[in-house]
Amino acid sequence: MRAPVEPNIDAIVAYVPGKPADELKRELGLEHVVKLASNENPLGPSPLAIEAIKQSLLEVHLYPDGGSFYLKHGVAEFLDVARESLLLANGSNEAIEIILRTFRRPNSRIVTGQSSFIIYKHAATAAHYEVDEVPHAGLHLDLDAMLAAIGENTRFVFIANPNNPTGQYVGEAALTRFLERVPVDTLVVLDEAYCHYTCNEDYPDGLKLMKRYPNLIVLRTFSKIYGLAGLRIGYAVLQPELANYCNRVRAPFNVNLIAQNAALASLADSEFVRRSVELNNEGMRGMLSGVREMGLKAADSAANFILLELNKPVVEVFKALLLRGVIVRPMVGYGMPYSARVTIGLPEENQRFLQALSQVL
Predict the structure, then answer these.
(1) Which residues pair with 159 in a beta bridge?
(2) Residue 2 maps to a domain
(3) φ, ψ for residue 333 (rounded to 5)?
(4) Helices 119-126 and 92-102 sit at what angle, rounded to 10 degrees?
(5) Contact 86/237 with Cβ under 8 angstroms?
(6) Residues spanned by the domain of 352
(7) 64 lies in some domain
(8) Inter-residue contact 229 to 223 (CB < 8 Å)
(9) 3-state secondary structure of 132
(10) Non-local CB neighbours of 205 within 8 Å, separated by 6+ positions
(11) pLDDT tens-digit series, residues 211-240
(12) Which H or E run contains 287?
């Protein structure tokens, strides 16, 4: 029997996440595996978040606060935004899906970078959007070409800043020029999942730009710098009127109790964030130096990962690294068959990767 699905669903290729470490241990009988595939914080969660998680376990028989009252107030105060402008979600992935569903019109389209976070295309296709993918200029988003791709049916433009998986960022001047020229009825989604790792002086603050550009939506997450990827918690900041519609569409109890409490506690631990950034900066220097000494290309990155250009097909290297207990992320699905994305881990994890890579090459 042919599955009763529409063509847009039939065309979707299932998202393939980074290979779990436990899965590789089971497959190869390994005791220790280094996973540098999913851009997770190698320090784990904040100690304050861990304590909040422990306390929350006593209440998991209860439904969570459907409006996430305390977390919403905490985020609003932390960011200095109105709580009415927040959409809390089961990861920023869900926020993307809610926003797409809420503001879709007949024949709607999105514009995104060809080598950008693949979930933009995935979620938009599932929501009956047509997707216009614009080639990058090298490793950078081509904002001029993206602007030219906007048509009368373009509902959204998605910009990851820094971009995943290339690690490059759009500076404030370039982003401002772009926003000035985008039609006011086209919504621009600025995904700042990795913003905490970016130390460049010209990196723009999307929340400040929202005051000038009401069609701007900012996405952020607790999965990266805050180390809560396993709890699935993220959010969008948008104009209160738009947030109101999104909160009508989202599922009830979409953010679980443990995630709410852990995220709120994380906001109070600025020292943990500082240590995480410091560890990433040190690891980034060592990682870039190590791969370049092997004669490989890797651009400077504004995130917590590098995009590594290899001298042989990435699938071949990926499989060989697995045999040595190291997991990275092949970029074949992003149209880069010779590239791998590698997360910056703990010093000993980075060193093990570099050693294994030198053996494979």
Answers:
(1) 190
(2) no
(3) -65, -15
(4) 40
(5) yes
(6) 7-44+271-359
(7) yes
(8) yes
(9) strand
(10) none
(11) 999 999 999 999 999 999 999 999 999 999
(12) helix 270-293
Last residue of a domain, which of 249, 269, 289?
269
* Average pLDDT over all residues of the chain: 96
The CATH number linked to 278 is: 3.90.1150.10
Predicted TM-score (pTM) of the model is 0.95
pLDDT of 14 > 90? The answer is no
Q: Which is it for the CA torsion 261, 238, 110, 252, positive or negative?
A: positive
Report the C-alpha gap between 5 and 298 in whole angstroms: 41
CATH number of the domain encompassing residue 209: 3.40.640.10
AA identity, residue 314: V
Say if 260 falls within a structural domain: yes
User: Do residue 257 and residue 295 come from a single domain?
Assistant: no
Dist. CA 50–CA 48, nearest whole Å: 5
Residues 13 and 60 in one domain: no
Q: Which residue, 68, 65, 101, is CA-closest to 84?
A: 68
Looking at 205, 237, 269, the residue that finishes a domain is: 269
Q: How far apart are CA 132 and CA 134, in angstroms?
A: 6
pLDDT tens-place string over residues 133-192 = 999 999 999 999 999 999 999 999 999 999 999 999 999 999 999 999 999 999 999 999
In contact, 157 and 146? CB cutoff 8 Å = yes
Only one residue has tokens 């402008």, namely 85
Which secondary structure element, helix H or strand E, spans residue 172, and what is its range?
A: helix 172-181
Question: Which residue is associated with the tokens 């007949």?
Answer: 106
Is the same domain home to 282 and 168? Answer: no
